[in-house]
């Protein structure tokens, strides 16, 4: 029993420690996927970013906006009916 508990504990610690490393992998591909799929910020409806910003229309210069995270979270908590996303997460960085 003690050996089993030790193995489970070791696996748990490894999973916890490896998560931040994997979480560092933000990408354009992930950003596109999140932009087009419902569920961002635990959204409670079937809307996604592309619903209002078809093919990114109107967002051409958004990347340079210092308040971009705040603006994205307004969309998530408003039309998407979700919860704010921390600006340091892979989802937000992507």
Low-confidence stretches: 9-23
Pattern of helices and strands: HHHHH
As a percent range, the share of helical residues equals 40-55%
Strand content: under 5%
How many H/I helical runs? 5
On the 0 to 100 scale, the average pLDDT is 81
Broad shape: globular
Largest sheet: none
Strand elements, count: 0
- Determine the structural class based on helices, strands and strand pairing: mainly alpha
Distance between the termini: 43 Å
Radius of gyration: 17 Å
Characteristics:
single chain, 94 residues, mainly alpha
Task: Summarize the structure in words.
52% of the residues lie in helices and 0% in strands. It is mostly helical and 94 residues long. The protein is globular, with a radius of gyration of 17 Å. It has helices at residues 2-23, 28-36, 49-52, 68-77, 90-93.
Topology:
Elements: H1 2-23, H2 28-36, H3 49-52, H4 68-77, H5 90-93
In short:
With 94 residues, this protein is mainly α.
């Amino acid at each position: 029993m003690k050996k089993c508990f030790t193995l489970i504990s070791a696996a748990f610690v490894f999973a916890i420690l490896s998560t931040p490393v994997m979480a560092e992998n933000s990408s354009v591909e992930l950003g596109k996927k999140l932009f087009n799929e419902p569920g961002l910020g635990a959204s409670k409806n079937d809307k996604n970013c592309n619903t209002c910003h078809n093919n990114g229309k109107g967002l051409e210069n958004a990347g340079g906006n210092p308040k971009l995270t705040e603006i994205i979270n307004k969309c998530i908590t408003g039309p998407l009916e979700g919860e704010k996303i921390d600006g340091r997460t892979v989802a937000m960085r992507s």
